[in-house]
Amino acid sequence: MIFESAFFTEMLLPFLLVFVVVFAILQKSKILGDGKAQNDAIVGLVIGLILIGVPGPRDILVGIMPWMAVGVAVILVFMILYGFVAGDLSDDKNMPPALKYTFLGIAAVFTVGVVLFVSGLWESVWASFGGQSDIWMNVVMVALVVAVVGVAIWGGKKKEG
After folding, report:
1. Helices 55-86 and 37-53 sit at what angle, rounded to 10 degrees?
2. Single pTM value for the model
3. Tens-place pLDDT, residues 34-53
4. Is 71 exposed, middle or buried (0-12, 13-18, 19+ CB in 10 A)?
5. Nearest to 155 by CA among 101, 119, 86
6. Are 86 and 94 in contact (CB under 8 A)?
7. Quick one: how far is CA 71 from the chain centroid?
């Protein structure tokens, strides 16, 4: 099947993704000038071709994209479930600031974790912490308890006004 071929998944799709994203950024920012779509397209083309020519970054991009899709699906499910409880989230006023920061934190941790895992750096990071899961699990548990207590104490204050 064409969608499973190495040319499609490791060459064509990464090239198109990088080309379109770079082109869109250049168009929006107007770094190369207003109305200079040809220049933006050439720069996007060159950056996309460089990505395809260098195996390391291409492999990282190919490895990250499926995880990003998983992350987007998880966020979609959470937003659907949250929407049942909270109502319309399209208006900024309906989404509590704590929820925005929670999404930001989850996205940041997820992104860093995926990049470390896909790039192969996770093993060296884990080894630098001694590789002892019991100690780090205790540290994570204490941090979670402190975070929950902090949210309960500071998040429960009502504003007067």
Report:
1. 110
2. 0.54
3. 888 999 999 999 999 999 99
4. middle
5. 101
6. yes
7. 8
7 token code pair: 């040319």
pLDDT in tens, 89-101: 566 566 677 777 7
Which candidate, 25, 21, 14, places its Cα nearest to that of 49? Answer: 14
Rounded to a whole number of angstroms, the CA Rg of the chain reads 21
Return d(Cα 24, Cα 31) in angstroms, integer.
Answer: 11
Degrees (nearest 5) of the Cα angle 103, 66, 17?
Answer: 95
**The pair of three-digit structure tokens given for residue 90, joined into one six-digit string:** 């399209």
pLDDT > 90? residue 140: no
What lies within 8 Å, CB to CB, of 8 at 6+ separation is: 2
Cα 119 to Cα 57, 93, 106: the distances in Å are 9, 39, 20
If phi over 0 gives left and psi between -120 and 50 gives alpha, with beta otherwise, what is residue 33? left
Domain boundaries, the chain: 1-53, 56-131
With 90 as the cut, is the pLDDT of residue 142 above it?
no
